[in-house]
Amino acid sequence: MSKAQRAAVDAMLRRGPQGFMPRPVEQMRGDFTALMALFPVPDVRTSGTVLGERPAVLVEPEGEARPGTLLYFHGGSFSLGSPQTAMGLTAGLVARTGFRALSLDYRLAPEHPFPAAIEDCLAAYRSLLDDGVSPESVAFAGDSAGGGLTVTTTLAAKRAGLPMPGAIVAFSPGLDHTRSGASMDTKAGIDPFFTREGMAHTGDWYLGGQDPNQELLAPAVLADLTGFPPLLLQVGTNELLLDDSVRLAERARDAEVDVILDITAGVPHVFQSFIGQLDEADHALDRAALFLTQRLSA
To answer: At 50, which helix (H) or strand (E)?
Structure first.
């Protein structure tokens, strides 16, 4: 682990607009797009498509793809971002696994609050199944809000009686809109990116006045994970959202679900994005790729 690299990343994030401080949504979207454009994207082939009546980006390896599909959900606090802002992570997984990925442009809050994003993600999964794709060959993957959507979409699929996907990979997932995890307080000031106030700002957009005390808004504390596929949760110790992953892993354990809780010390939210800048990012993506190839091959 490189202390110099981690210090440089921390300093860079602190120079930016910390914590998604309350600003007009269009300004926040522009700032987020500019930030994510700084991250490198491995060589892949991309093309536009439609999935469940929503735009999506098909991401394929440069060589022949191996059997398997990653359904990717981008981050951005349910209000920002697009498949393009998460392309570094999506392409990183595609390049490492050889699987194709479909990155979904789901609807965003505040224009489309809960449960619009989950509905779009579920419709995308239905579309794959309707096209004859085997559920065992599909993995849900995502970062931040999109990491949360990997879990809530699986819950929605279970409610709908759909077969479970083959695996779930969640990078720094947001899994609790009650914001009751201890790390929301113990990591205050340590997290260079988020603040409780900033998260409440975008969180209120997503909630749209609804009670957060429900399974699809707080799976870390309320979800029944019985029957879930194997789950990989990756998170850093410098995150307000650390305990979202810790508590979900405990729920998965109690539900007899295969779960890997992969915690990296001294790194920030969605540290996997810093490919080539942070050794831990490349190593984490390597571990995620190994998990995916083992699970989808099986």
So the answer is: strand 45-51
Amino acid identity, residue 24? Answer: P
- 269 among known catalytic residues: yes
The total number of residues shown for the chain amounts to: 298
What domains, with CATH codes, occur in the chain? 3-297 (3.40.50.1820)
Burial (0-12, 13-18, 19+ Cβ within 10 Å), 160:
exposed
pLDDT (tens digit per residue) in 152-174: 999 999 999 999 999 999 999 99
pLDDT at 232 over 90: yes
Q: Are the beta carbons of 152 and 73 closer than 8 angstroms?
A: no
Q: Which position among 74, 177, 201, 269 bears the catalytic label? A: 269
List % helix, strand, coil for the chain (3-state, nearest 5).
45, 15, 40
Amino acid at 140: F
Tokens of 241: 């959202």
Structure tokens at 236: 């850093």
Q: Catalytic residue among 79, 82, 144, 273, which?
A: 144
What is the bridge-based pairing of β-strands 69-73 and 138-143?
parallel
Q: How far apart are CA 230 and CA 292, in angstroms?
A: 10
**Active-site annotation holder among 77, 172, 177, 239:** 239
Query: Across all residues in the chain, what is the average pLDDT?
Result: 95
